[in-house]
Amino acid sequence: MGSEGKQDRRAPDESSHVLYLYETRNKIYAKRFVGFFRKLKKRSSIPLLLGYLLTPWLQIDGRQAIWFDLPERQFHIFWMTFWPQDFMLLAWLLIICAFALFAVTVLVGRIWCGFTCPQTVWTMMFMGVEHFFEGGRNKRIKLDLAPWNFNKIWRKGGKHGGWLLIAFITGFTFVGYFNPIRQLSVEFLTFSAQPATVFWAFLFAAMTYMNAGYLREQVCKYMCPYARFQSVMFDPDTLIVSYDEARGEQRGARRRDDDRRAASGLGDCVDCGLCVQVCPVGIDIRDGLQSECISCGLCIDACNAIMDKVALPGKLISFTTENKLENSKTRILRPRLVGYAAGLVVMISLFLYVLVVRVPLELDVVRDRSLLYRETSRGLVENIFTLRISNMDNRDHDFQIRVEGDYEFKFIGDQLVSVEAGEVLTHLVRLALDPGFLETGNADITFVVQASDDDKIIDSEHSRFIGPFSR
User: Fold this and answer.
1) DSSP code of residue 211
2) Residues 6 or more apart from 22 whose CB is under 8 A from it?
3) Domain-by-domain residue ranges, the chain?
4) Averaged pLDDT score across all residues of the chain
5) What is the separation, in whole angstroms, between the first and last Cα of the chain?
6) Between 187 and which of 79, 193, 197, 353 could a Cys-Cys bridge form, CB atoms 3.0 to 4.6 Å apart?
């Protein structure tokens, strides 16, 4: 084969670079290190986990506390019930959450990712199971390199069994928000659950198993969009996990009794690599701020422990700001943060006001268009209307129906109707009027529906009464 057909295997020099667009994931063996921030992560995740797992089991007024009843198009959230027409409130709530995330990011960086993100919380649980069965970092590395034997099989099997159990509980609970979870438990135990329900439970369990068991840092690095636009919200006063390069460089090992001034110009970093070993996303914080960093603070715990061992001051890695690292003054209140905070206060206030004044009643009026009007044997003009009364409250109500307009209409039909909680009642009524009153051939009318036991539950809808021209 000639030289033209051979690949160029020359070693790349400083002017040539190789870019790998696709790279196989290198498994990260994160070292378990107990410190302040790990304890904080654990304590902050416990309320979130308990809230997620226990909320569907709570009962309020005889129903599940949070229940998204899709077939009935009712969304029960504690003491309130929302309907599809209330989706604007959901959009409003999502906007509020987005602004809150922006404000928190400007102030304290990716604190959400490091302590309260579900991906972080579930990954931490999976890593705990992994540590229980396979041991610490070095033991896990040796176990993966060891040949398959009984010890490796039972440890790997126990780990994956624990992962599958957590994943199934997660998927089952998720489906329990859309189906009554107590009934769902009986159906699963008796193998009588609907195929669609079983499908979604196991699908969500499989996604949990993959994300927290295998993908882990890949989700944070490549799948989560937050890592991509976080830098837009950062400023020199944002609190981030940072390495004090001026103090730490040059790196080098030393003993506890070494005088760092006589250590040939070495900085405080002893280059132990522990900050990299404990990082759940496998980055080196000493390389500067990186989009992969989730601000979990585990590298701070590891570095502070090493600084204590070599009798050096802590906080070589710490939550700090760029301005503070450059010996400048850190500003807490700045225009961007004040703007986000002001917007949040306004939006939350308006949102709460809308919730307070929200009337759990909706009235729709449809006039019979197949017959504009008809004349009765008594010479009156009659129109037919269909009223759809939606009782969006959690209690049954008796509703009084009345008609308001410029004339005294004769109401034909029941003016007092009973509507159960969450029910939509279709009610047919007729209005009659002497045609001599209709100078223009039509008249504006208003149907008013009001709960007889609560004056605040009232709604109205405009319509039109049509008849012949009297002139």
Assistant:
1) I
2) none
3) 21-358, 361-466
4) 85
5) 106
6) 193
Residue 457 CA to residue 450 CA, distance in Å, equals 6
Token duo for residue 392: 């969006």
Residues with Cβ within 8 Å of residue 19, at least 6 apart in sequence: none
Using the structure block, give the residue that is written with the tokens 């008594």.
Answer: 378
Query: CA 208, CA 168: separation in Å to the nearest integer?
Result: 8
Residue 260 half-sphere exposure, CB side, CA atoms within 13 Å?
Answer: 18
Written as six digits, the tokens of 429 are 């009524």
Q: In the chain, what is the greatest distance between 2 CA atoms, to the nearest angstrom?
A: 115
Give the three-class secondary structure for 366: strand
Average pLDDT of 374-382? 84
Question: Which letter does DSSP use for residue 220 in this model?
Answer: I
The one-letter amino acid at 52: Y
What distance in Å separates the CA atoms of residue 440 and residue 419, rounded to the nearest whole number? 37
Q: Selecting from 2.60.40.10, 3.30.470.10, 3.40.50.720, 3.50.50.60, what CATH number does the domain 361-466 have?
A: 2.60.40.10
Q: Using alpha carbons, select from 95, 97, 60 the residue that is nearest to residue 79.
A: 60
What contacts 195, CB < 8 A, 6 or more positions away? none
- Alpha-carbon distance of 115 to 434, in angstroms, equals 72
One-letter identity of residue 435: P
